Amino acid sequence: MRSLVPMSIFFHRLLRHPFLLYSLTLLLVSGCDSNNQPESARSQSSPVVVSIKPIAMIAREIVGDGTQIVQLVGSGDPHHYAPKVTDRAAIEHAQVVVWMGPAMEAVLARQMTQVPKDRQLELLSAGGYEYEGGDSADPHLWLRPRNAAVMAAHIATRMAELNPGLAESYRQRARDFSRAMANLQKVQDRALWAYRDVPIVTTHQAYGHFFGPAGVAVESLGTAASHQHGARTMLEKGAAVNTGGGVRGCLFGEVPANARDRQTAEHLGLDYQPLDPLGIDLPAQSTYMQLMEKLLADARLCLSRVPDSPGSQKD
């Protein structure tokens, strides 16, 4: 007959496997919750898991200080993000997982097939968004404040379903956020409208959602992730932006600043400025308002350096 493993050896082995220790902890906590708390209380005490930082910013506006927000993707590329062991455990124990959808988090999509539909919120498929001036196939919809308000409304609706006792609180926060976003959109559009005649080239189609509502047209060289700037494309863009007396414009890439984008801008006769659509360089608890204010300020760093040209209406 086999002897039992001594308790000291058991714990020594357990400490060598952090995931087993983490899982055991969650199991014990869950057991205590199930014994001492009603279902509604357990739901409220579980975290809301989100995929990317902009969603975390919007979700915090809705859920309030009493609910923990767990963000999966830190400074990495959400298009290629794959959940870690601890991420999968967080997803499993979340009251809801909020993500954009397969077009934004393709690898995460495989994990989400194992999450019940009532415990996840796929924002892209929720609908109700504006696309004018932007690419309807591009998933970076939060770059338009009015779309951020739509996302907040979707989050509020799902949270109200999960926690009926807090439903009105969620809805009120969503209404307040929507009013703030309507004002922010006006401020942003008014500031960018002045540069509608400035040639703007981007490395990412996402920026159409940022500039488009103000009537500012952008020409995209492709995605920032691929950086496939062919010589023919660069020459064509260079000819376009330098027509009419050598008018200069801006090339907007993504953070961090890099030599390839800088060289592309120089080749095209453009000034260069990286933008931060994911808020990677912002502090962890930054707000959505701060994200958009930083984007606008960084965009104007370049736009304000462009000399006035015939037909320009800059203030």
Structure, described:
With 315 residues, this protein is α/β, with parallel strands linked by helices. It has 13 helices and eight strands. It has helices at residues 7-15, 18-36, 39-45, 53-63, 85-92, 108-112, 123-126, 145-162, 167-193, 208-211, 231-241, 259-268, 288-303; strands spanning 48-50, 69-71, 96-99, 120-122, 200-202, 219-220, 250-254, 271-275. Strands 2-1-3-4 form a four-stranded parallel sheet. Strands 6-5-7-8 form a four-stranded parallel sheet, with helices on both faces. It is globular, with a radius of gyration of 23 Å. The relative contact order is 0.10.
**Average pLDDT reading:** 83
Distance between the termini: 88 Å
Low-confidence stretches: 1-5, 18-42, 223-232
**Multimerization state:** single chain
Number of helices: 13
Number of strands: 8
Shape: globular
Instruction: Report the major sheet.
Output: 4 strands, parallel
Q: Helical amount among residues, as a percent range? A: 40-55%
| Topology as a string of helices (H) and strands (E) | HHHEHEHEHEHHHEHEHEHEH
Structural class by SSE content? alpha/beta
Q: Main sheet: which strands, in order across?
A: 2-1-3-4
Alpha carbon gyration radius: 23 Å
Beta-strand fraction estimate: 5-15%
